[in-house]
Amino acid sequence: MAEGGAQVEGAARAAADARDAASAGARGTARLTERADFRATSDPALSADADGERAEGVQLLDYRQLYSLWERQQWAVQDLDFTQDRIDWHERIDAEERYARMYGLSSFFVGEQRVAAELGPMMRACPDEDMRIFLCTQIADEARHVAFFDRFYAEVGVLEADDLEGRLAETSAHLNRDFGVLFDELLRRRVDRLAQEPQDTEALVEAVTIYHMVIEGMLALTGQHFIISYNENVGTLPAFVAGFTNVARDEHRHVAFGARFLRDMARADERYGQAIARTLAEVGPAAQGVLRPKWMDESEENVDLFGVRVSDAREFAARALARRLKVIGLG
Fold it and tell me: What's the sign of the alpha-carbon dihedral 170, 175, 176, 180?
């Protein structure tokens, strides 16, 4: 069998071997979404009230409050010790499982770099100074997330490349086509428009919908919850889990900004609400595709992948989006 085929087959076996962690992983995810520091962000996906008639009454932090929360939720990549993670990666996790894990790790590493580069035009296009100040904090967060993954890759010895650009290029081989469509076409098109026409508020609404509601809210937070839970339950990569949990908390804060911004815009003018709905419909197919690893066939979506099926991940992501949309006023 060719090497690529053997890797795919091995990844499938590694995914199947994780079935025993499924129920424990679900409990771990529930613990994450119940954390007080996560709930402090006011991300509507963490509020059961967003499911019903009380959705419109769900309180969202304003932009200054989100900035203040950012100051209170600081963390440092340099404080993490990856010594045990290196042992786990090379001695406790076999080659097949390492290959299977690379899709999720690669999506986050490259994704953080992509979005960090796109935030500048979005920040400048915001119509309010408090909005711009908060998005400046998000630029800093995204840079820290890139630094977190780069240090994890470097100190654990995940790849052969010996610098940031090389690691990004090497890990990109694990991404699927839909990842490129979502980040490099659908999001970038809006950001490029904002770079040329920062007064185009409708383009900004579309960009925030893709970035904060889909990329961060549906995809990143879904992957984070399940990846963290799986590692906690099998007892691997403790420093990665600690840092990735901080990344997830940051993402909830970012998504809370997106929910607040889109609710304000939808209330200000109904055409912005229409822009949100139109954009979600446009990017939906690519977003759904990102959740499936490059090596997994569509027919295998009900196979367990580290304690969760692709169909379960999509359900989790859709439920979170539905809560946020209800609070925005579009549910």
Answer: negative
User: Mean pLDDT over all residues of the chain?
Assistant: 88
Within 10 A of 23 (CB to CB), how many other CB atoms are there? Answer: 11
DSSP state of 308: B
Domain count across the chain: 1
- Determine the 3-state secondary structure of 60 from DSSP: coil
Of 183, 206, 182, nearest to 194 (Cα)? 206
Residue 24, CB-side half-sphere exposure with 13 Å CA sphere: 14
- pLDDT at residue 21 above 90? no
Burial grade of 154 (CB within 10 A; 0-12, 13-18, 19 or more) = middle
- What's the rounded Cα separation, in Å, for the pair 181 and 41? 30
Give the pLDDT confidence of 53-82 residue by residue, as tens digits: 777 778 999 999 999 999 999 999 999 999
Rounded to 10°, the helix 310-328/270-290 angle is 170
CATH code for position 97? 1.10.620.20
Q: Give one DSSP letter per residue of 188-222, joined into a string.
A: HHHHHHHHH-TT-HHHHHHHHIIIIIIIIIIIIHH
3-class secondary-structure state, position 93: coil
Tokens of 206: 């579309």
Cα–Cα distance for residue pair 217/289, rounded to 1 Å? 15
Q: Which residues touch 78 (CB under 8 Å, ≥6 apart)?
A: none
Count of other CB atoms within 10 angstroms of residue 177: 11
Structure tokens at 73: 């939720």
d(CA 212, CA 227): 20
Structural domain containing residue 227 = 3-328
